[in-house]
Amino acid sequence: MARKFAEDRLVIASHNEGKVREMAELMAPFEVAVCAAGELGLAEPEETGATFIANAELKARAAAAAADLPALADDSGLVVAALDGLPGIYSARWSGAGRDFAAAMARVEAELVTAGATPEGADAHFTSALSLCWPDGHCENFEGYVHGKLSFPPRGDNGFGYDPIFIPTGHGVTFGEMPSDKKYALSHRTRAFEKLVAACFPRHG
Ligand code: IMP
Question: Which CATH number, 3.10.129.10, 3.40.50.720, 1.10.150.20, 3.90.950.10, labels domain 9-200?
Answer without folding.
Answer: 3.90.950.10
